């Protein structure tokens, strides 16, 4: 019921509590831990930018735990935790007029800008998921520096060598979430 009413953040918090408590059937728990938030903007925006909607949902889960008004200590905002300066650049590129940083708190806008940024990172790193996720979190400059310092063409090795603890954990969590979404929502 919560998911049908658009209460992904609340459903997720309940799922986390249930996961640490008594035995709960996987069929009940899985949709709470891997909800698809705001499907109306998420699905068309994912298609528009060529980003897997399940990857975008996993990113949102990690970035904000589905809280549209989330603000990070660094100042990133909204569901996809876009920095205001990045949001302004993306909004201009996408032709959004009269944009303000508070627009990042609107789910549809946050999802659109986050998807655009993720698509940009995936393109920049030739579809290499771990590199794109690391750059979404730490910045493209940091990822390029890591690749210069420790060159590798093996994405798994890159992921294991991420020197920033926060970014290492971020990539691991988003990827694990993505795999959970794929398992739950597989079309097989």
Give the arrangement of secondary structure elements.
Elements: H1 8-19, H2 26-33, H3 39-49, H4 53-64, H5 84-93, H6 107-124, H7 129-138, H8 140-149, H9 155-160, H10 165-184
Mean pLDDT: 90
**Biggest sheet architecture:** none
Number of strands: 0
Q: Compute the CA-based radius of gyration.
A: 17 Å
User: Portion of residues in helices?
Assistant: 55-70%
By CATH, the topology of the largest domain is Lysozyme
Top-tier CATH class of the largest domain:
Mainly Alpha
Could you name the ranges where pLDDT drops below 50 across 5 or more consecutive residues? none
The CATH architecture of the largest domain is: Orthogonal Bundle
Oligomer: single chain
Q: Helix/strand/pairing class, anyone?
A: mainly alpha
What is the 3D shape? globular
Structural domain tally = 2
Terminus-to-terminus distance: 25 Å
Query: Could you give the order of the helices and strands?
Result: HHHHHHHHHH
Q: List the total number of helices.
A: 10
Strand content: under 5%
Structural notes for this entry:
With 188 residues, this protein is mainly alpha-helical. It has 2 domains: 1-33, no CATH class; 34-184, Lysozyme. The protein has 10 helices and no strands. Helix 3 runs parallel beside helix 6. The two termini are 25 Å apart. The mean pLDDT is 90. Residues 48-155 form the Transglycosylase SLT domain. Belongs to the transglycosylase Slt family. It comes from Thermomicrobium roseum. This is Lytic transglycosylase domain-containing protein. InterPro entries: Lysozyme-like_dom_sf, Transglycosylase_SLT_dom_1.
């Amino acid at each position: 019921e919560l998911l049908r009413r658009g209460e992904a953040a609340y459903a997720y918090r309940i799922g986390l509590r249930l996961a640490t408590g008594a035995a709960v059937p996987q069929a009940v728990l899985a949709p709470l831990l891997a909800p698809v938030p705001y499907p109306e903007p998420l699905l068309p925006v994912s298609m528009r930018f060529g980003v897997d909607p399940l990857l975008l949902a996993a990113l949102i889960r990690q970035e904000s735990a589905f809280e549209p008004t989330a603000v990070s200590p660094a100042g990133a905002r909204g569901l996809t935790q876009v920095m205001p300066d990045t949001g302004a650049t993306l909004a201009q590129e996408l032709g959004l007029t009269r944009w303000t940083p508070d627009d990042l708190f609107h789910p549809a806008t946050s999802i659109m800008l986050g998807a655009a940024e993720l698509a940009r990172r995936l393109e920049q790193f030739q579809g290499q998921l771990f590199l794109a996720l690391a750059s979404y979190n730490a910045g493209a400059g940091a990822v390029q520096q890591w690749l210069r310092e420790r060159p590798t063409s093996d994405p798994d090795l890159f992921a294991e060598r991420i020197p920033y603890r926060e970014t290492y954990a971020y990539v691991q969590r988003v990827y694990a979430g993505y795999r959970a979404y794929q398992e739950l929502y597989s079309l097989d």
